[in-house]
Fold:
Amino acid sequence: MRANVSDLDLRLLRIFIAVVDAKGLSDAQTTLNIGQPTISTHLATLEARVGFRLCERGRSGFHLTPRGEKFVAAARSLLSTVTDFGISVRNMDKTLVGNLRIGLIDHAPTTLLQQVSSSVAAFRKRSEAVRFSLSVRPPRDLEDQLIHGELDLVFSYFWRHLPRMEYRNLFKERQIACCGRGHPLFAKAGMVLAEEAAEHEWTWRSYPLPNAAVVRPHDSVTAVADDMEAVAILIMSGRYLGYLPEEFAEPYIGKKLLAPLNPKLLRYNVKFEMVHPRQAGKDDVLLAFLQDLKQAHT
Structure:
């Protein structure tokens, strides 16, 4: 491809990325609203302009070539820059312009959701033209995305603190041990002792939890789950005991699908934190949002 990128080149790049995201020409037809033969022609034109094959497509399926893998990353970067430039030009009179990528733990407490939504509302009153992106993921995924620069700000709990990240404490969430309606301990729920609970099988989350090590019955854990809904399903089966956030468990307890084993004894607290890269302190968009978040938290 020539050093001077034309409008045609940008269109071809967008088509190429749409095909990559759709994992093939067939599924990309709906996204692009053009037929598969036309898409194939556009890809061939792009390959002719760059001078090498970007992807293999045919009966064996769609996959990128080694050069195509590198090229798609460069193409995404270029199109992102073009988009950001367009936003900046259209909003030159705005004080804050850019993107803010926020990550939230799945099934976040209502307190946290209220604080974030209040902060967004306050931020939108500023002289701004900021594109918000919210991603809901398990804690481990959020940390990975933050480390790789895919998120600017994350709300979650963290089992470790990394040197190049800045952490701020928000509040604590109480986790309580529960059993399902069909479990042998359901009849005496509320008065179960730790020794009794340890004699039964437990389910646990597949990612590390801060402070959880002190209550985990290591020899009794025979099932793991990626998120709280999965943990709840296993507990409701009547075959496992497990910990759930108290607020998350309340609707299930109200319907008598779950019961707390002993809220005064079999419980622990998880610290919720807000984290962002330390160098992000120079980002005007993030700083402004953090100010609004501080006000909402207060």
User: Anything to note?
Assistant: The mean pLDDT is 87. The first helix runs from residue 7 to 22.
